[in-house]
Amino acid sequence: AESPSLQVCGARGGPSVPAGSGAVSGELLEREERYKRLNAELEAKREKLMRQTEEVMKSQQETLSRPISLQTKYSEDDKQRDPLCLKVSSLTHSHAKLPHKKKCASASMAQNRTCSGSKGKRITSSSEINLETQNADDVAVLEDCTGFSLAKTASEIEGGLPDCLDDDIIPNTASEIGAEAQIRFLKAKLRVTQEELASVMHECRKKDDENQNLKSQLKDTEEERTRLQRKISVQQSQAEKYKMLSQEANKMCEGLQQEVVALEKELESLKRVQKQAASSQSATEVRLNRALEEAERCKAELNKLKQSNKDVANQELKTIEELKAENKKLQKQKGELIIGFKKQLKLIDILKRQKMHIEAARMLSFTEEEFMKALEWGND
After folding, report:
1. Count of CA atoms in the C-beta half-sphere (13 A) of 59
2. Which residue ranges are recorded for the region named Disordered (predicted)?
3. Are 139 and 160 in contact (CB under 8 A)?
4. Distance between CA 214 and CA 207 in Å, rounded?
5. Which of 86, 94, 200, 266 would disulfide-bridge 135, Cβ 3.0–4.6 Å?
6. pTM of the predicted model as reported, rounded to 2 decimal places
7. 326 near 312, Cβ under 8 Å?
């Protein structure tokens, strides 16, 4: 922002006054208000960016903490919505008991063969076989939320099958079932296992895609957070700069206001001096006019005296004594007139020096009382 400058025209002693001081002060006030509004907008934007940054960080923390919570503890709703989690827990339990099952496999088969005559016991044994097979098929779902490969999952599914699976899959009453029935049973069981494996692999792919999406979202969020932090720092520096500019503008505005007050005082004093000069000029002009009228009257009287002197010259021979007396009177009047003329010439010289003031107040009128005073002054 550029700093405003004020240039005051005219000397302090002269009558010229800066006409744009009020406009300049108004412009400075308007600029100050604009800076304040801009500062408020920057503060609002900064607060908004801080809130957005906090929301992004909170969502990032929730995203990062979600897989840990899924590994440690599952809620009842997650168990109802996601059957794979149930398979993970049952699979972990089945792998923990796998050595124990191998030890008691022969004993279990012997016990089941002794009870092969009962049909209900066959159904119970078949359900147990299906449950154990299902637990063995779902061995690879334990790490679905932490990021794993499909090949690793397949290898874990193949390696996680127990050695005594044939003894568990085939019914315990093998002596009563023929070879073809066993083959048909094994084919059906293999088809079911393949379908379950395909579904588990599909779920694994979905989980991998979700993990990749979450990683990309996390990366985008981190980039957005760094960008917002840089933007916030830049805006904070700009806010500080605008604040300093506003303070400088306030100081300059205060200095200009003080200068305006001083100029107003000087203007008032100049107006008073101008009024006094105008009044003195009007009085001087009145006196000058009276002196001019007096001079014209003296000229007229002089002309009359010359005419009377001519008339008296014709009668001079007859009335010499009267003319001598009259001559004395005329000489006396002449001396008085000369003295009056000298005074008038001095007054005229003084009035010529004040000619510039007289021209400014030439159109002013005068009162009757001043006229009488001027007449009395002329007679004196």
Report:
1. 14
2. 1-25, 52-76
3. yes
4. 10
5. 94
6. 0.26
7. yes
